[in-house]
Amino acid sequence: MADVPTQSLANHTRLDPSFHFFLLPLGLVAIVLSVIRIIHHPSIASTLGVVLAVGFVMIAFKARGYALRAQDRVIRLEERLRLAVLMPEAGRARIGELTESQLIGLRFASDAELPGLAMRALNEGLTKKQIKSSIVSWRGDYFRV
Q: Of 8, 15, 110, 135, which residue is least crowded by CB atoms under 10 Å?
């Protein structure tokens, strides 16, 4: 991954060009055009066009949402396993108390700072955003959907 810039808090979000720059705009244009058509030429066919355009956009969002949800489940498992290895014995019993959102935020922490940051997240109730802001040594996630 030499051509991929090193991730940080400032650049870790990811745009999927096929979704964000093709499917989503295409769906929004289809909705707008079908609404214009139903206004100018109301009929069953133009009504069906609106329904299909909205359905198309919903399918795109649901498909992306399912992929992200599945990936979040994998991240949750990975981070629990990583914490089980890296946490001191006293902290291991509390791994189950971390929320899915906290575990997703912790995935960016280096192995060295993960145990301390996980304990802070537990003790202070840190949010995903607060966790990511607290990371000093960023561990990139280059496989996010």
A: 15
